[in-house]
Amino acid sequence: MALFLALLLLALSGSSSPVAARASDHGGDDYMIVAMSSLKLKSACLGHRVTPPVNSTWMPLDLMDGPCSSPSSSSAVVPSVDELLRRDQLRADEVQKRLSHNVGDDEANGPANSKVTQVNHLAKIKVELGSRKPAKTTASQLGIHPAATVGGGVGTGTLLPGVIQTVVLDTASDVPWVQCVPCPIPPCHPQTDTFYDPTNSGSYAAFTCSSAACQQLGPYANGCSNNQCQYKVTYPDGSSTSGTYSSDLLTLNPTTSVNNFQFGCSHADQGSFDSQTAGVMALGGGPESLISQTASTFGRTFSYCLPPTASYVGFFVLGAPGVVASSSKYVVTPLLRDNRSPATFYRVLLRAVTVAGRRIAVPPAAASAGAVLDSRTVITRLPPAAYAAVRAAFRDSMRAYRPAAPKGSLDTCYDFRGVRSVKLPRVALVFDGGVVELDPSGILFDDCLAFAANRDDRMPVILGNVQQQTIEVLYDVDGGAVGFRRNAC
């Protein structure tokens, strides 16, 4: 409880100044003046730029490897930009595989022997899992006469708080999980949080192999061990987790908890997961996700806002005060339905991208497949033809600045040394239902244009988390809509 309150106070103590100074009189409505310092990581956590929404399920969210992470994670090894982009390409490739209608089941589930790692530009939250059994206290320690006790001990009648676990938000997976004792390293990964030990929780239970929860695991079922249900999840980038499918009390904040929360109690994982995280909070459309488990209470609605840099704090909200389509604060676009694709993914129709007022259409084959909203893919992937046109328009708008060498999948980079502010073309995403202008932090990534190309024009667009920065993305799954609210964090 104290940790949650401390995070809330930290979030509210931040600066409310905008990331970029925008002025239409400095180059017209198609451009904005951006201070380069606003896109750089600061040494201290600056909290929220914008007052967070009023909602009982609100939680602070921060990005990996920044000053807003816990102090114990400050010693973590931060990957280079080239390494981060390499990891991101692996994830994007595997998302495309799972979306393909022509691959076999084994291939769609990801390469079994891939040597892969997790991308570090990720959003994470802190949750509390389990409920510790109260320690037995002797009567003499409490100043009570022994005759007043039964069995030599005094109980409080309630369970104590569980353990804090840092989890990555993932809109492209279904099974939540954390590492559980026993968890030898390897095959488990080191973590800064205390390892969750189910034997210390008074509300923990492992599902039996004949339970309904186990029978409904589908592609995530992994057999039975000592009559305990086993699961395995292989992620789009080829990494995996396996262990016992279980339930326990999940506390999101001081006013919101989920009884009998179903999750994977992981005893092994493949791939180099970051030590700053204990697991993954799955937000996908499958029945195992947090969103589906809490549907009766929160109506399969959630939102998040990723901050512009890791120096700020964003937010995650479960549920919403009303249907997204009824609010004028959001640009609303329909969720696409396709029974041929996994229910995990959330897809919308992206019609075009505008750069400094120039409209670049998304090829019909790619547009009809839908654009996948992924909280863990970093860089947005466009069809090659659309990307080439976006790149050409952006380069034309940035002729005043020195080009720099490409960085991984990013081939339009600039040398901004000595440049205090840049005249940046406005970039917007044109959805079926409205236009969403990107924040400067969603246009430039490490001084490069933050878009990349898919391998062919038929592959679906992937909308990465960089483009989502400072925008509240509200998923109204039952209502069949997604809302975008700019300048939300």
TrEMBL record:
Q: Where is the signal peptide?
A: 1-21
Superkingdom, natural source: Eukaryota
The family database entries (Pfam families) matched by this protein are listed as: TAXi_C (PF14541), TAXi_N (PF14543)
Q: Which UniProt keywords apply?
A: Signal
Please give the InterPro entries that the UniProt record associates with this protein: Aspartic_peptidase_A1 (IPR001461), PEPTIDASE_A1 (IPR033121), Peptidase_aspartic_dom_sf (IPR021109), TAXi_C (IPR032799), TAXi_N (IPR032861)
In what residue span(s) does the Peptidase A1 domain sit? 150-485
Q: Does the keyword ATP-binding apply?
A: no
Catalytic positions are D170, D374
* Annotated family: Belongs to the peptidase A1 family.
Question: Could you identify this protein by its name?
Answer: Peptidase A1 domain-containing protein
Q: Which organism is it from?
A: Urochloa decumbens
Q: What is the lineage of its organism?
A: Eukaryota, Viridiplantae, Streptophyta, Embryophyta, Tracheophyta
